[in-house]
Task: structure prediction
Amino acid sequence: MEFRIVGENVPRKDAVAKVTGKARYTRDMGMPNMLYGKVLRSSITHGRIKSMDIHKAESLKGVVKVLTPFNTKCHNFPTAGHPYNLDPNHQDIADRNVLTDWVRFYGDEIAAVIAEDEFSAKKALKMIDVVYEELPFYLDPEEALKEGATEIHEGSKNVVGHNRFTLGDIDIEEAFDQADFVYEEVLEVKPVQHCQMENQVAYAYVEGNGRLVVVTSTQIPHIVRRILSSALNMPVGNIRVIKPIIGGGFGNKQDLVLEPLVAMMTLAVNGRPVLLDMEREECITSTRTRHGARFYMKTGLRKDGRIIAKQLKVYGNGGAYAAHGHAVIGKMGGDFYRLYPAEKAVEYESYTAYTNCSVAGAMRAYGTPQITFAFEAHMDNIALEMDIDPLVLREKNMVQKGFVDQLTGVPILTCGLPEIISKGKEYIDWDKKRKQYSAQTGDKRRGVGFALFGYRTSTYPVCLEIGGARIVMNQDGSVQLQMGATEIGQGAATVFSQMAAETIGIPYEMVHFEEFTDTDVVPFDPGAYASRQCYVSGKAVRKAATEVREKILKRASGMLKIQQFALDVQDGNIIRADNGEVLCHVGKIALDAFYNRTDADTITADVTEVSDTNCIAFGGCVAEVEVDIPTGRVEIMKVLNIHDSGKIINPVLAEGQVHGGMSMGLGYALSEVMLYNEKTGAPRNNNLLDYKLPTLMDTPRLDVLFVGENDPTAPYGNKALGEPPAVPSAPAIRNAILHATGVKVNKLPMNPQTLFEYFCAAGLI
Amino acid sequence: MYDIGKYQEATTVEEALRYLHDDPGSRIIAGGTDILINVREGKDMGVHLVGIQRINPLRKIIVNREGTLSIGPLVTFTELEENELINKYVSYLGQAGGTMGGPQLRNIATIGGNICNGATSADSASMLFCLNARLHLRTKESERTIPIQDFYLGPGKVDLKSGEMLTEILIDRIDYQGFAGKYTKFSQRKALDIATIGCSLMLKIRKNIIEDLRLAYGVAAPTPVRCCNAEQYAVGKMVTLEVAKTIGMKALEDVSPRDSWRGSKAYREQLIQELAQRAVMELLDQGGKKDA
Ligand SMILES: Cc1cc2nc3c(=O)[nH]c(=O)nc-3n(C[C@H](O)[C@H](O)[C@H](O)COP(=O)(O)OP(=O)(O)OC[C@H]3O[C@@H](n4cnc5c(N)ncnc54)[C@H](O)[C@@H]3O)c2cc1C
Result:
């Protein structure tokens, strides 16, 4: 495939608006006569509300209404941004209500105040008296799953979900018996938070015609619309959801967090606009987190390093509500099995448990960073024990082109792993440094580490993958590209425009993309999640653009009296296909389509495309670290992410995407963790002072490299790139620390305190 | 959202003292980077504030004839870091200030606010302990000058009487002349973070013998602390790695770090030793050697 615009560094559609401050975010808008909402959050971790006194709060000047679980009515609803499942057995768990009298985590939503100003709303919160009856709480999934534990959701036994599969010709125990070397260990990752720059914020009102409008910072406008409809028992058609410019989501906004409540609020005040704007503290405790998990891992190998049997049992910390249910932890099974297929047998079993921690949900790469940390650490531990180079161990076992996933049937048609390894080795000078750093003493020691991963691009065949696109040609030959797929800062508007321009044959500047996603206007698309949009929604763009191009050519053929096959559209002109002679501008064709007295028929396309393929993106990270043993501090000397994401649609944007993911990965590796008070269950660090999101000063130079070939299943050769950058840094750094110190750090984050404890235990301090 | 009950702004010290006197519950706001955080968190709701940002004399840094340095409480950390006199006489104090927050914070946060806030983690405090800084405090009716050690009473508690204001931070010549110094802030992040341990060291060496050494820590006790045992041990010793290590060990006798979820006692003790030892060796390399 030869591309003209796809693959070019065209400027972002929203670049100027963002740097000049003109981009309008939810909080920049609002309505006249708007009211302000604030949420009362529980100050216990698990229990029932015995009574709630709102009289004082209600009588405070400026307060319009106080909502409680006792004076509101709403259907239980699921919150996950998944496509609806027509099979009732596979629908998301509807365990959530707008306000609850059964508190399930510290910060749960128990009442809400609507007031004339934010200040009065906040003051009123302090005037609500709540009497609780406390219940035992669990912060650890395995504790919550113990026989006899108090249920967090009635009848659940604290199991959100469970799955198990085995693959291979022989029983796993038999396979272990055949192994020359068996290695078994436990690894653990803790919950972390997205910390996207813009907290959740939304406002809602009822139009004169009775329709409910919700303006919200979401990744999934069409799904918000459907879930609101079931929560409020209101026809979908009566609800309009508008997504303005967004300040990041990373999966935190792939859930309904405040939309049902803000809708409820406006309905409670006769449709007057109500704004709900979360504060950072609330956003950290009471939105979503990345699942923590404990991994019980066992691997059997032959003397030569071939893996013959793999077994993994995972306990995931789902937090207080199901949200994405078992999908995140369940998905780890595929990642576990696929990257290093075992010769004889694989066994995977996993639980997601309800706990009384903040609710876990989707976060960039959806379980893959966790399992990749665990398995890539495990691989290096095995390599150390077997005295094999960790990359040799990987090369002996890693998946290859032509492999067909037995769980999904998805074949691997392109695979950049060999190139990822060779380029990474070259960058870090692997062979030399592995030797050079092998026997160090002293306070400061260096090491190099590598980690690989595979990443499925869309959710097919687990979920339906559907995309929609509408292209409407303007009178000047430019087009409006309208999509339900959402721009959330990742650059979707830009790359979709590149795709449309490419396929139609017009310049990038002639594609207009309105970043406000309005469900009244844009065709259906479930939205921005997984790494699906370029791949799935990209197929819809290609289909719509192809149709538009056909229509242009057909009309041009009639106007120019030249057969259609002899014409082409390029750079906004109708040209002769054979010699490139420019015949006329597309604007001329467009004008004719609008105003031809006998044959007017405006040029549009409105398509839906169901994607029934998937592909695996690959990548890796290689890092060199210096470990300061007495203080437990790790300095990153060099770090490179290498991605095989197929065709890179816009290299500059893609590099930015990788930088962001690496930064997230470094935080995951070295500093970020959500902490809870063991005695009370209250969050310890729900602010950006104590939640150690890395700053720019903590961030080393981030190197990026793209490798690989175009994937034939993709609309433009592209594979996943949105989420993968966040996957490999943590295990790469972890493995570099192992190389530097010989200490197997089997948990995250590897902050100075934790490393101090490991080094003490290992006798280094 | 800030619930501020009343705001009065003074342009002279006398005016500020009058406001404070007439409205006893009112609080001074300088840069506001501590007090507004509290107000936002709902701790000081309805607070009455007296603004002092426009009192220009409080922004001065001067040296008098006796060589006493006077630093106005409104001096921001950016100003401290860039000031000529500071760089000439006590550059390490400016360096300590340079570890605060980030550039935006340093442009607004003041040294007076840092001290009066009373946190053991205040990044300028332990160095001021080493420098034997004295604080000049005034009310409408009286004034006094006290050593900074006496000012700190407990966590977040300082000896600031009702209606009292810090107007000057004083450092005598004998407390800085001939010293090299270094502040080490150990925090998880390299910016926008609170110290796990802050270590201030001043060293005067003659012919490789320690003539004077001053060591103080932040976050090693409820208030910043000087380490007298370590200091006494050090004087008269020839600097070696062994001696530096012993100074670190001796420091443990003077501190009382806490076990908290932000860091264990054992880990803080490790840092207390390690940071002192490293600072001694580093200053030795960097010119602590140069004869006074
Ligand atoms: C993002 C951020 C990062 C921070 N990072 C750091 C850091 O790295 N290290 C650190 O030590 N601190 C840090 N802080 C805390 C704070 O910035 C400092 O303590 C700062 O020096 C306070 O100065 P201020 O002028 O803003 O004080 P203000 O908030 O104005 O005042 C603080 C207190 O001192 C009183 N006060 C102020 N001036 C006087 C005076 N002249 N006389 C009597 N009382 C007075 C006030 O009444 C108030 O009680 C940080 C704060 C923020 C918001």
Q: What stands out?
A: The first strand of chain A starts at residue 35 and ends at 41. The pocket of flavin-adenine dinucleotide is lined by residues B 27-35, 37, 73, 100-101, 105, 109-110, 112-114, 116-117, 121-123, 160, 165-166, 192 (CB under 6 Å).
